[in-house]
Amino acid sequence: MKIDSDLLLKLENLAKLNLSKEERAKLTGDLNNILSMVEKLQELDTTGIEPLVYINEEVNKLRSDKIQNQVSQKEALSNAPAADGTYFKVPKVLK
Q1: Which fold has domain 5-42?
Q2: What's the CA gap between 77 and 71, in Å, rounded?
Q3: pLDDT tens string 68-82
Q4: Is the pTM of this model over 0.70?
């Protein structure tokens, strides 16, 4: 695959970019370099190699959920800037 000016203009349009001629020339070269590196990787013989699923052998150690440090409703509302006795009052955000 080769990046040409037509493909770059399509990409520019999709990405909502407005590039100058110099930027287009540099980007075309950069993208072609990236594609050539990826094509080089395609030459590697990977037969017999298992796909990498996880980077490391670590296993997640999950803890059980335990209710701790409970605050009563009255205590929680005592620090609120505005409350109506049962709920926190917040500024209206929707019309």
Answers
A1: Histone, subunit A (1.10.20)
A2: 10
A3: 889 888 888 888 899
A4: no
A 10 A CB-CB count for 64 gives: 4
Tokens 């609120």 appear where?
Answer: 80
DSSP string, 39-94: HHHHTS--TTPPP---SS------------S---HHHHHHT-SSB-SSSB------
Q: What is the pLDDT of residues 22-48, one digit of tens each?
A: 999 999 999 999 999 999 988 999 899
Domain ranges of the chain: 5-42
Distance (Å, whole) CA 26 – CA 34:
12
